Amino acid sequence: MCGIVGYTGSRTAPALLIAGLKKLEYRGYDSAGLALQREGTLVVAKKAGSVADLEATLNRDLEQVTVGIGHTRWATHGRPTDINAHPHCSCGDEIALVHNGIIENHQELKDWLAGEKGHHFISETDTEVLAHLIEEFYEGDLLVAMRQAMNKVVGSYTVLALSAREPGRLVCTRQSSPLIIGLGEGENLIASDITALLEHTRKTKILEDGEFAAITADSVEIVNADGAAIETDIFEITWDLEAAEKGGFDHFMLKEIMEQPDAVRETMRQRIDREKGKVKIDDLGLSIDEITALDKLYIIACGTAYHAGLVGKIIIESLTGIPVEVDVASEFRYRAPLLKQNQMVIVISQSGETADTLAALRLARQKGLKVLAITNVVGSSVAREADHVFYTWAGPEIAVASTKAYLTQLVALYLLGLYFGEIRSYIDQSVAKELLEGLIALPGQIREVLSEASIDRLRAYCRHLAGWESAFFVGRNLDFPVAMEGALKLKEISYIHAEAYAAGELKHGPLALIVEGIPVIALATQKAVLDKTLSNIQEVNARGGAVFAITQKGFNDVAGQVDGVFYLPPVNDLLAPVLSAVPTQLIAYYAAVERGHSIDKPRNLAKSVTVE
Ligand code: M6R
After folding, report:
1. Mutation choice for ligand 1 from 299, 310, 354, CB with most ligand atoms inside 8 A
2. 607 CA distance to ligand 1 middle (Å)
3. 359 lines ligand 1 (CB under 6 A)
4. Minimal-distance CA residue to ligand 1 atom 9
5. Best label site of 88, 172, 351, 516, fewest CB within 10 Å?
6. Contacts by 509-512 with C-beta closer than 8 Å and gap 24+?
């Protein structure tokens, strides 16, 4: 989620690193920093804010420096402050490093290093542990020390380091996080993204998980965890800069849709104890007494996050027995809600900066209620002002249309529901276990939904849809909020007027709008109401509507009654929204592509709405 770049050669490193970091800023970062080698010492400059803010602080006397590393941060552990910005240094400031990812056992390592080994820590980050850990093993060879240190680390990471005692040498490693070595003439580079390298070289070596590399201006040494040399092929990059930023996809939206298996997995990481069959989110800061005493929850959000809240209501009520009211933030504020003791407000916001959501949060706190925020941005206003925070680890979302953040918000709500349900002894152990196993399977199942063959099936229907100015989404129970989210996505980027209805409501009015060929997307993933949904589909069929159904494999009755069908892998009904949302995102995306619209920046919209 962070951006990393390193350079060793004969050109001015600070300018080159700053240019590289700017190329990575499209991912949206909150702080930046450099560590440079100068005459046997390390000079570190770092700052909360943009890369340009950092650039403004750099002294001219650094122009002679030709070796360094840089970082742009998307905060995970610790707020975006100057001190938490990377690089982080060892006690003696002899080693500096930058990191992308999460060190899962950082607390355990920190306790050991700060206690037994006497290291002094200054930041709130997990990353700083790595600088001290490598220092602990350092005996003059950074590559050896990094190999030994990483042996003790659990997590996903890219690490890039340099030592004041090894002029011209950069050392790096990776685990489940990208790292690319760029090969130049009399210079070499390292970066987390191809975008930071393209201006300098198209010849690269791609480091694999568990491999380590040391580079100088004219050498690249790659070894495995035991120190044995590894031969790596040279990979020539053919993408242009714009394609590289989007990871080779045509649009950020599609890239982000494709990132969903990882986003969902990251959001669950460390929050499920599979052995005990339990959710472990004790770091929320809510006591057992507080959770047990809850007699009502409000979920407040806007847009897509509001739709996640509507799914959350059904989940939380069924897993915890706590009544849940869901409100659009801009309505909640002005309707004098009857807030009482033993109630809690959950706000959901990807950006953590939405003005209406923030105002609702403030109102709830003013009235004496505790607020739990589900957000994707560490240190955002919502995160800072809430009493408790649950971070979704979707990574930066750039496309205005929210996709991966939505899926991770759903996951957060499942985890909260299971956690509260367990504490309140409301949920049956075997049900909890089944749902946990179901959650763990989701990333793989989302990947299946995203397979090329599945997408081809959708595209044919999207060509039909793109020719219409009006479309409907219908569903019952958990399928209804997913239908609402599908309609929002379609409106937002294809500009087709789309309405979502509870399928049972069609006959109470909207059926009058069904004409020959009009696209109707029917969500039919809920076993308990499948027959009812099929009857509603028949009502549409009878009036000539072109129904495309999204259903589960094994729901065989559906295919014969619709014009097109998309099968999801079999899934527990309660978890189905995480899978069924994905084809609706793809439908919106491909309909908009067919219509030739600006996908990532739809007209009249902004990613983060900071005005009321
Ligand atoms: O950052 P937030 O989650 O608070 O944003 C809320 C809405 O503005 C947002 O979900 C919006 O509806 C999306 N563009 C929909 O794709």
Report:
1. 354
2. 7
3. no
4. 303
5. 516
6. 510/472, 511/539, 511/540, 511/543
pLDDT band for position 1 (cuts 50, 70, 90): low
CA of 530 to the centre of ligand 1 (A): 30
| Class of the domain covering 3-245 | alpha beta
Residue ranges of the chain assigned to CATH 3.60.20.10:
3-245
Let me know: does 183 contact 206? Beta carbons within 8 Å: no
Q: Which has the minimum average pLDDT: 111-115, 275-279, 570-574, 584-588? A: 275-279
Residue 2 known to be catalytic: yes
pLDDT tens digit sequence for 183-211: 999 999 999 888 899 889 999 998 988 99
Who's near 451: CB < 8 A, 6+ residues apart? Answer: none
Tell me the three state secondary structure of residue 36.
strand
**Architecture of the domain defined by 451-595:** 3-Layer(aba) Sandwich (3.40)
Neighbours of 28 (CB within 10 A): 17
Cis peptide bond N-terminal to 87, omega within 30: yes
CA distance 383 to 389: 6
Q: Which of 2, 89, 302, 462 is catalytic?
A: 2
**Catalytic site includes residue 172:** no
pLDDT in tens, 446-467: 999 999 888 888 998 999 999 9
Name the average pLDDT for the chain: 93
> 261: Cβ–Cβ under 8 A, 6 or more apart, which residues?
443, 444, 446, 447, 450
CA of 201 to the centre of ligand 1 (A): 38
Query: How far is ligand 1, taken at its centre, from the CA of residue 329, in Å?
Result: 12
| pLDDT tier, 2 (very low <50, low <70, confident <90, very high otherwise) | confident
> Best substitution site from 350, 404, 585 to test ligand 1's pocket, by max atoms within 8 Å of Cβ?
350
Ranges in the chain annotated CATH 3.40.50.10490: 255-448, 451-595
Q: 357 in ligand 1 pocket by Cβ < 6 Å? A: yes
Query: pLDDT digit string (tens) for 292-313?
Result: 999 999 999 999 999 999 999 9
* Closest residue CA from atom 11 of ligand 1: 303
CATH number, domain 255-448, options 3.90.550.10, 3.40.50.10490, 3.40.50.970, 3.30.1490.100? 3.40.50.10490
